[in-house]
Amino acid sequence: MSFIVTIILTVQMLSALAMIGLILVQHGKGADMGAAFGSGGSGSLFGASGSANFLSRTTAILATVFFVCTLALAYFGNLRPASSGSVLEGAAVVAPAAAPAAAESAPAAPATGAAQIPAK
Fold it and tell me: 115, 11, 2: which is closest to 62 by C-alpha?
């Protein structure tokens, strides 16, 4: 089970990093307006609008992978064995040890922090 969770977590982190990179590479809507009026950014590797389609589709696929990994991690995180009880039941079994009997027979020392008022 732990191996599957590790793989899903790795895929989620890689998809998140790739998605961040793709979002930072993409142009905003204002950049497309400048390219339409003859700005120098229209000549690119994918053509005038090919890069927007490729990058946006890749981002959508990575977002879907990230979402599916998040749901899978939530599912595996909430799985509990059927035999286990409450967390409080396990804590009730471990109780602190009782004080030794010799300490009870010794006279109690006065508290050091308490202020004693003399009687008049």
Answer: 11
Position 109 in a domain: no
What are the tokens at 120?
Answer: 């008049």
Assigned domain for 118 exists: no
Cβ atoms within 10 Å of 52's Cβ, excluding its own:
17
Provide the domain count of the chain: 1
Q: What is the pLDDT of residues 34-57, one digit of tens each?
A: 556 655 554 555 555 556 688 889
pLDDT digits (tens, 9 = 90+) for 62-109: 999 999 999 999 999 888 766 656 666 666 555 566 666 655 565 666
Number of Cβ within 10 Å of residue 38's Cβ equals 7
Is 61 inside any structural domain?
A: yes
As a whole number of angstroms, the distance between CA 3 and CA 9 comes to 10
Structural domain harbouring 55? 1-19+49-80
pLDDT tens digits, one per residue of 66-78: 999 999 999 998 8
Find how far residue 53's CA is from the centre of its chain: 31
**Residue 96 lies inside a defined structural domain of this protein:** no
